[in-house]
Known about the structure:
Layout lengths: L1 H43 L18 H5 L2 H16 L10 H18 L3 H15 L9 H21 L4 H13 L33
Helix pairs in contact: 3-4, 3-5, 4-5, 5-6, 6-7
Amino acid sequence: MIRRHGRLLATVFLALAALVLVALGAQLLRWERQISRDDVVFQATPLRPDLWRSGPFPQLDPSRAILGIDDDLAFRRALQLFWRAKPRSIDYRPLLQAYIAQAQGALTRIADSSSSAQRRSAAFNLMGVLQFSQTLPSSDEAARNATIREGVGDFRNALELDATNDDAKLNLELAARLYREELTGPPISGGPSGGANNGSAGGAGAIGGGY
């Protein structure tokens, strides 16, 4: 009798385990399809609020952690925050600084902690673009130079992490040509091993590859 009950329990356990695996497989397939679909939608409507979400309460979806896609989703949402912080996407200007701060915070977390060097490099590049995304301060030369050098430092950090990041390479070359005089001061501190560079947002019209 005991042996029969043991076999029955083992059968039930195996059946439940099989159901869990099937459910995880279905969730993985659903997430793969949704991410691919929403990546395409993002190209046309980057500020759409329902991208890469599984429902009204995404924080209650355990499948993301189990499937190991949280980093992928975090980067995509940081990219969306970056788009929202771009001046041409802002309808209500007083919110611009708040949007920039949100985007910088999300990108900084990725640049500091992502397990992917390529993703960290992409985050640093976008942080550099944010530095140049607005009009640079003209009345305060020290602030202007600091902003320019912070942005250039982000591009350099991006290339240190991933030498094949062509967007960061192009942005660095453009910044070096446009702001040659401002970049003659002491070297910028910080970097991939010392944390993300921080600073106020600045702008140069041609700088902005990588998004």
